[in-house]
Amino acid sequence: MTDDLLGPDTWEEPAWEDPAPGRRRWPYVVGGALVLLAVVYGATAAWAADRVARGTTVAGVEVGGQSAAQARATLARALGDGSGRPLTLTSPAGEASVDPADAGLAVDVPASVDPLVGFSLAPADVWRQVAGGGEQPAAVTVDEAAFGEALEGVRDELDASAKEGSVSVAGGKVAYEEPVAGVETDVARTAAAVRRAWPGRDTVAVVGDVRAPKVSAQELQRVRDEFAEVAVSAPVTVQVGGSSFELSAKQLAPAAVLTPADDGTITPRADDEKLRAIVHAAAKKAKLEVAPKDAVVTFAGNDWRKPKVAPSAPGSALDDASISAAVWTAFSTPSKTATVTTKEVQPEFTTEVAKKTLPREKVSSFTTYYEPGAARVTNIKNAARYLDGTYVPPGEQFSMNGVLGERTPDKGYVKAGIILNNRLSDSYGGGISQVSTTIFNASFFAGVQLDAWQAHSFYISRYPEGREATISWPDLHNKFTNTLDGGILIDVVATDTSVTVTYWGTKKYDVEATKSARYDIVQPKVVRDDSPTCKPQGPVPGFKVDIGRIFKQGGKVVRKASFTTSYVPEDDVTCTASGR
Q1: What is the pTM of this model?
Q2: Total Cβ atoms within 10 A of residue 52
């Protein structure tokens, strides 16, 4: 068969040595494209090696498209050390401004720029150069010591102690105050926060620890709802037998104790002493309590040998244990009704005791003397009448001011000499310190407990040295407690020249007095006084002296006691006013 015989539709397979059309060019095309892409990629990377990607900002400063050197210069100008812009630190408690340089803050410009430039074939880096960069943080250095010192300087503005809340029923109304948490700035964590944010932001919130109040809001709200609101909702009715009286929330409120425990919980409780006092006072007002009546001892003609004893009588009072249980429960719960029992109360000074402790003998007696005719004698006699016949049961306290009261003209007192601010003067009742001194010495030798007394400011020779007691209304007192085994009848007799105080009772001790020599002697000054109220004074040195009591029973010493009396000098006063 010859080629001429082949028809137009006949296909002859080529020889194996000849390349097939369309199958041998594509590898070269692909390879060429890759080579071209690599060249372009490399050229792009090379071009960007010393240039910041466009659109890049560092801490808000535009550096995109700049060379490394240009970017460093731009950042140095814009940021520098940041000292021109104060850094404001904020916290829930407040805010404070610090100078960044003083706080040890600085921008490391090279470290901020270097990561943004340099040759890199990493796709992400190349893509950033093509597509454009974005906001980048500045590299910030922090001098931790300087930052800590700066922060300590403004801690009072940034930190706050926790504020405790409260709940109360004072005044019979619910008062509630919400607690507030405190905050304490942490230096290290705040420095880290500033490093991340500054200088792109001039205001940075500090990082710190919350300081919770001891009692949570939830606990205070619970006490308010479960106790306080209930306590003030209605008065408490106290039932005593067939009678009753009411106590308002305002009356009972002072007895409520809402003190938190160490774990921050509050258990409402009663101050039993206050609660009982409140209830007893209300019961007495409602005449549901009757005070016991002590026996009363009197003497016909104030003669200790003629006693009369008015008998004692028991009283009745609400039972304290019943008050604590029932009234508090009613106050703190919706029931609002308390049933309280009563008990009989015996007097302290019963008829039996009164009779057993009647005076049997003279216990002590003391006399002091004075010149007749002076105004002070009138006051001495007047005070003696008030004091004569006073009876002090065993264990009771005598108060001279309590018996006499204020010395006034309507009580028969006249003006006479007193000592005022270490100078002689006049006042109503002047002179009754002589009665007080006489009573003091009767008490001294009776062996009773001396409770309150005060010597004259300077020594007066008519009184026993170191063993005397002035008196004044209402502050200077003469008090003793009867520590003998029987009652004491105070017998006071004043004549024109003397006053004698005798104690009748049951003698317990023989008392001896001791006295030291004078010491710490201070000489008086010479004073010339031209005031119209001046009173001349003779000089008397000031000194101290120790006074002792020796208590004996059956001739044997059973106890000793002592005290020190101090006198200031009585100045030598000459009055120079005209007409004197």
Answers
A1: 0.60
A2: 26
